[in-house]
Design goal:
38% of the residues lie in helices and 23% in strands. By secondary structure, the protein is α/β, with parallel strands linked by helices. The strands form 2 sheets. The chain has a 5-stranded mixed sheet, sandwiched between helices. Strand 6 and strand 7 form a beta hairpin. The longest helix has 28 residues. The N terminus is likely disordered.
């Protein structure tokens, strides 16, 4: 019996709702979202590993879905936003073997409904395109997405609903790891909000420096973007560290932890 038959045999007769499987392949993590219409039924995250095989990713996906009251046989479409080209073929083979269908990848020439009004549209990452699709649909324009991922990215959608660029900074986790890796006497600390800036011990100084430093960095970039836009945009934060970074900021209007997955769902509806 083929792998495709195995994937669809035992539970094929039960009543199922067709699911969209949205996949965000990032440099640090891969996020999966199972959408039942516009409802995100379940979401999962695993570490990005370019050495894993299609079978390893397929088996992980099958296990995650079953543990979340979903089933791989319910999936009737797969849309992937990937910024790791070396994994594209791996995920294509995993979807073909374990789900029984070929996935669709977000590409710069895809009809997303967002005009990429930048010098080199093909350089814009798929996740940034999808985030822009999501905020324009959900919150209108002008808007700015701050994505706290491997890099901290700022993406701007202007009053006309066009993507006009942004900024890219070293990610928070990467910056912290770089400091700890280059200093012998500094112990690792977690990023956490601190009401006081003046720390009274080394750990408190590090936490204060990280938190208020990254917060100030974010707000400085957002303030400059406001001036250049000549308008007050709605600011949406996403990514793993969005919640702590937005907590004490008057600049961030909304925290959307699953913004990229939601953007994939919105784009899937458009493509249908």
């Amino acid at each position: 019996m083929s792998s495709n038959s195995c994937a669809r045999s035992a539970d094929a007769d039960r009543e199922q709702s067709p699911l969209l499987l949205a996949v965000d392949v990032g440099n640090t993590e891969v996020s999966f979202g199972a959408f039942d219409g516009d409802r995100l039924r379940r979401a999962w995250r695993i570490r990005t590993d370019t050495t894993r095989t299609p079978d390893e990713y397929g088996a992980s996906l099958t296990t995650m879905m079953e543990s979340g009251d979903c089933h791989i046989t319910e999936v009737d479409a797969v849309l992937i936003a990937s910024v790791v080209p070396g994994l594209n073929r791996v995920f294509q083979e995993a979807c073909e073997k374990y789900i029984g269908m070929e996935p669709r990848f977000v590409t710069p020439d895809m009809d997303t409904g967002i005009v990429l009004d930048v010098d080199h549209p093909h350089e814009v990452g798929a996740d940034r395109v999808v985030n822009s699709v999501a905020v324009e649909r959900l919150y209108g324009s002008p808007s700015i997405v701050v994505d706290f991922g491997t890099a901290t990215t700022f993406d701007v959608v202007d009053v006309g609903g066009r993507y006009i660029g942004g900024a890219i900074l070293p990610g928070i986790q990467i910056s912290m790891e770089a400091l700890f890796g280059r200093t012998a006497l500094l112990s690792r600390v977690e990023l956490r909000p601190r009401p006081q800036i003046i720390g009274r011990n080394t750990a408190a100084m590090l936490q204060s420096g990280f938190y208020h430093g990254f917060l100030g960095q974010m707000e400085h970039v957002l303030e400059g973007m406001r001036r250049e836009l000549g308008a007050k945009p709605r600011v949406i934060a996403t990514g793993g560290l969005a919640e702590p970074m937005a907590r004490d900021s008057d600049y961030v209007d909304v925290v959307e932890p699953h913004l990229t997955l939601t953007g994939l769902r919105i784009l899937h509806e458009r493509l249908r």
